[in-house]
Amino acid sequence: MNNIKLFSDSTCDLPKKLLDKLNISIIPLYVVFRDKTFKDGNDINVEGLYEKVDELDILPKTSAPSPIDFYNAFKPYIDKGDSIIYIGLSSKLSSTILNAKIIEDEFQDSDITIIDSKNLSAGIGLLLLKAYELIESGMDKENIVEEIKSLVSKVKTSFIVDDFDFLHKGGRCSSIQSLMGGLLKIKPILKVNDGNIILGQKPRGKKRKAIDLTLQNIYKNKDSIDLNRIIVGESMAIEDSLYIKEQLEKNMNFKEILLIEAGCVISSHCGKNTTGIYYIEK
């Protein structure tokens, strides 16, 4: 049986130490400030991103890895005869999956599978961790791919943004929602549905109220949640992540609560002080 090599892109937001430990390779997206381009997580970190936003008084643009980026990443493993599974950012939010599929077609005689997570950030990360566990269990590639694809619609992603400007200017939020959010002090709970970001509940007031509402929804649905793992993500909002972890430990029985920091591409669209919660339903 061929060795199975796992790939993702930088928007999976899993910590580098964990990715290295699990031998998951990352193909970075790009962050662009005017005429300067940076590889997400390689040439720029989140602190540097927000420093540049303040310094230049502009929001960054982001772009997908090119087909050449995928070719260069995959080829050494193809040459070794490895099988490849790539799990990437939702095709409805980026051309990343499309570019990966171009190279999948280029290597027609090789064993490459491209999986559209229809998600973002740790929503991708959850699928990667599950795929790793299945590889370690000795499952064959065909069944791993089938299992991961069956989980795509079961990954639940919710996040709370503190600043509408990043979503609005990044094209992820309509002008009406941006205006109303600012005027009415709404802290929206955004969700990922079939690969798209949609507006969920719209509590007014402090961000902590929106977090508590999100937690209450988890408690109500606890019987339908896979308790093996939940991920809490943040962009410069570690205190909120620690609060969520504490509440989950009190009220739920997750085997693992993983805290992560959002990378530069995700932070470019959600902005500072964003918090996300990610889990899989049964």
TrEMBL record:
SUPFAM superfamilies: DAK1/DegV-like (SSF82549). InterPro entries: DegV, DegV_C, DegV_domain_contain. The keyword tRNA-binding does not apply. The keyword DNA damage does not apply. It holds the Pfam family DegV. One of its GO terms (molecular function) is lipid binding. Keywords: Lipid-binding. PANTHER family: DEGV DOMAIN-CONTAINING PROTEIN DR_1986-RELATED (PTHR33434), FATTY ACID-BINDING PROTEIN TM_1468 (PTHR33434:SF2). This is DegV family protein. It comes from Senegalia massiliensis.
